[in-house]
Amino acid sequence: MELTLAIAIGVLTGSGVWLLLRPRTYQVIIGLSLLSYAVNLFIFSMGRLHSGAAAVLDGAGAINPADYADPLPQALVLTAIVIGFATTALFLVVLLASRGLTGSDHVDGREPH
Amino acid sequence: MLASKSRNLAGIIAGAVALACHVAVWLLYVPVRDNEVVRSVFEWVPSLGLSVSLRLDGFAWLFALLVSGIGVLVVLYARYYMSAEDPVPRFFAFFQAFMGAMLGVVISGNLILLVIFWELTSVTSFLLIGYWHHNQSARDGARMSLTVTAIGGLGLLGGVVVIGHIVGSYDLDRVLASGDLIRGHALYLPALLLVLLGAFTKSAQFPFHFWLPNAMAAPTPVSAYLHSATMVKAGVFLLARLWPVLSGTPEWFTIVGLAGMASLVVGAYLAMFQQDLKGLLAYSTISHLGLITLLLSLGSPLGLVAAIFHIMNHATFKASLFMAAGIIDHETGTRDLRKLSGLFRFMPITGTLAMVASAAMAGVPLLNGFLSKEMFFAEAVETHADSWLDTIAPYAAVLASALAVTYSIRLIHSIFLGAPPESFPRAPHEPPFFMRLPVTLLVIACLVVGIAPGLTIGPYLHIAVTSVLGSATPEYSLAVWHGFNTPLIMSLVALVAGALLYLLIGNYLERSDGPFLLSGIQAQRIFEQVMVTVSWRWARFVETNLGTRRLQPQLRLVVFIAFAAAFLSLFGGVVDLAPISLKGMDWAFTGMWAVGVVCAVAAAYQAKFHRLAALALLGGTGLVTCMTFVWMSAPDLAVTQLVVEIVTSVLILLGLRWLPKRFQGLSEATGPMARLRRLRDLVMAVGAGLGMTIVAYAVMTRPLPQTISDFFLENAYSGGGGRNVVNVILVDFRGFDTLGEITVLGIVALTVFALLRRFRPAPDTVERPEQQRIQRAYDEAHPDRQPGATAVDYLLVPSVIMKWMFPVVIVFSAYLFLRGHDAPGGGFAAGVAMAAGFILQYMAAGTIWVEDRLRILPVTWIGGGLLTALLTGAGAWFFGKPFLTSYAQYVDVPLIGKVPLATASLFDLGVLSLVVGATVLMLIALAHQSVRRLRASRIEEQS
């Protein structure tokens, strides 16, 4: 399980970085999305993988933290997902504005010579 | 709030404030007289040793008296000086801001606080000098003074931090008690140099004096107040304040003495040659401040007494001279000494006042300037240190005094005496009584102090001196007549020499274009040269040689640095990886990720030519991520990821329409260089991916150390009243972070909205999309169809279902929200889900249909949400708890049962509202672009 997720994170990062370095704005936005999946999964995996652990307290008695999934990375990732959406939106709008202003969808705002 | 022309009201308010300050200072006289230190302390950042600590001792009291007293007079003067066309309320607002900052400098009991007020005086001074901002010289002067004094302020901050480091506290009392410790410390010299940088720039001491004459572009009340009586005194105030701590060393004597003497002589010399009345006064101010600095450099208690005394005297006669200069400018329309002459016959009262004040400036007996100058001469003659500086001090003092006599005579002679003026823009006459009143009062003060110093200023000067020197207060006498001694001879020599000098070169001065000998060296020009070099040449050099405006190299650099940083820190040592075995593999999970990985790679491959396909593939990866969260016991994340996935797809779909068409094979670069570039990027991508894999695997196979998560798990229910720990962390334990985050979200949404308001699509995307054109052609070819009907009927069944789903989605969102504290859900997921509900309606029925039926005010949602969250947090204050403390209880609601009700839920409601607002705002703003375009093209069609 760990190996699978580690490889998955690696591939997502690789695809994201590849797209990040491409010249077209749309490629960069897709790349950033892929990269944010990878980063979210990476942060999430820092709490280790718990398959089938309880996510919600039963509310009675003392608690053994080992029985539960780690809530801290989850809280971090949850906000990261929402902020990720916001930045994607912002980038998309900047992309569109730049395209409207310059007529080009190249990241530098003009076609390479 | 005031009308921009309300001179009287603004003046009354400002004057009342200044007067109130002045009265308050007087009320504190009794405790201060009894050598008490009046204190008032609020804790600010106790962990950093920062407190808003106000401390009023005798010295601060005298300065506060001066600042507020002259403040009252200048407000009265400014009411008549400022023209009705000027935005006067703005002037008085800046003025009061300055006065507050200056009083703050004076009564700060904490050095950091003092620096903050110090910087505030620089900023307000900048605003006041640049008050007539349509005037080029005002803007230049303001910028120069800010640059110079802000550099000094930065130095002062550094010096204060060093002192704080030595003493272990920023508290002024403790610092003042640690003189020996500071002087003996290895860091004494750096601290001294930094503090002096601050003091010298502020008090316009050589070689930083050049900003003051340029600051004369300010309105004259500002020059009278800031640049003669108060702000420029802040530097010498600081020197006197820290005098018990820093003075008495050879370094102090040499550096401070040299700067003071240079300012004293050079200032007086340059003042002689000025043709601008205010310029003359400015250089004279530099010279007098140099005198004060020189007195402080001596390190003798008597020197300090003379310095404080001269600070007061200079403030009175120089402020009155500036005001008189303003009156002359106001009445004649010029400040040029070459044009002014014979004004005495037009304004005898003002003329008399100005003459008395000039005489005080020159040090004529029976005026206050004479007394402190006598004390200065006495100190200059005394031997304080075995140094050439000390030897030449008396000669420099006499020389500068003689020059002061010369420029004072020149001032009076060329303005008031001589032939009647030939041509003035306006016929000069006496100013209104109340405009002259402040000058009159100040000149009377000069006279009274000069004639009977012991009865007037004596007691106040004494408490100021005692508060600085304590038991070391020397015996001194403030009498006018000390007998026929050396200082008196020096005074007489200076008076006679100055008068003779004027007789000799008076005519030459009247005609000269610049100072003899020194005209080639202009500090202002050097300053401009430095500014151009640093801010333009060097900046451009760095930009052209080290920077690039292209995004790709920048991103490549970012990726490379991130990779290198991780690589060096992790693989410099050896990473011990757990043995890789396929035994524990979950093949279903692996299979799922095989799909996810293929989607990701395919998305990367397709993103250039097949955008829609890439988006769909991206969604595939997103779904697999979402399922991973389900698998790994993170239901909250799964829910959030799912709804966010939906809105992200919709968002990008909306954007796709505005991108240019691109066909495979047409625009692809296929040179060897392009191939090499791609190979390099591929290597970087593979390297980054491989690195992440190894790091992630290494961490995941390691046991989890003790973390703060255990605390959250143990206390979520008992402390936060919720069973969903993730949600409790978000809205309770780390509520402040969440507050910051939703604020960011709101700002991003507003930014998106603002950017789209000015959106201009590229020309090739303006016309209708191809599909719509085909549909339209079809409709027009059939006589029984309305044009556009196909587009309306398109996906009719799904759209009906989507409309019906609206209430369901809203209920689902409410459900997610309500259970959030105890079960997976919460404000973020609920908010995005509700936004998805809204956007579904837009997709199903079109923008116009929805907005005819539903008024959505996303900005209100954002503002309301943020306000709810803030008020919930602030609510805790009423119960004496820190911001965002939450309170939880279960409430029995009939029919529904036990419902967890925490104030954190209210906070979560704020989160929900803001997320709905932000998401909907972004989506709708983007969706509206198509409608706008449609409207525009319809107008075009009609015309």
Description:
- The complex is a heterodimer of chains A (113) and B (943).
- With 113 residues, chain A is mainly alpha-helical.
- Chain A contains three helices and no strands.
- Chain A has helices spanning 2-20, 25-45, 71-102.
- The longest helix of chain A has 32 residues, at 71-102.
- Chain A is elongated and about 70 Å long.
- The termini of chain A are far apart.
- The mean pLDDT of chain A is 86.
- Chain B is an all-alpha fold and 943 residues long.
- In chain B, strand 3 and strand 4 form a beta hairpin.
- In chain B, helix 16 packs antiparallel against helix 20 and helix 18 crosses helix 22 (486-511).
- Chain B is elongated.
- The two termini of chain B are 47 Å apart.
- The relative contact order of chain B is 0.05.
- The model of chain B has no long low-confidence stretch (mean pLDDT 85).
- Classes of the chains: A mainly alpha (113), B mainly alpha (943).
Topology at a glance:
The complex is a heterodimer of chains A (113) and B (943).
Chain A lengths: L1 H19 L4 H21 L25 H32 L11
Helix pairs in contact in A: 1-2, 2-3
Chain B lengths: L6 H21 L1 H5 L4 E8 L4 E7 L1 H24 L6 H20 L3 H19 L6 H32 L4 H5 L2 H6 L3 H15 L8 H4 L5 H10 L3 H9 L1 H4 L3 H24 L3 H21 L3 H32 L15 H15 L5 H14 L6 H29 L16 H19 L6 H12 L16 H26 L11 H24 L4 H21 L15 H20 L4 H21 L3 H22 L15 H29 L8 H12 L4 H9 L1 H23 L12 H12 L7 H5 L2 H23 L8 H19 L1 H7 L4 H18 L12 E6 L3 E6 H40 L1
Antiparallel strand pairs in B: 1-2, 3-4
Helix pairs in contact in B: 1-3, 1-4, 3-4, 3-11, 3-16, 3-20, 3-21, 4-5, 5-6, 6-9, 9-12, 9-14, 11-16, 12-15, 14-15, 14-19, 15-16, 15-19, 16-17, 16-18, 16-20, 16-21, 17-19, 17-20, 18-19, 18-20, 18-22, 19-22, 24-28, 25-26, 26-27, 27-35, 27-38, 29-30, 30-31, 31-37, 31-38, 34-35, 35-36, 35-38, ...
Provide a quick synopsis of the model.
Chain A has 113 residues and is mostly helical. Chain A has three helices and no strands. The model of chain B has no long low-confidence stretch (mean pLDDT 85).
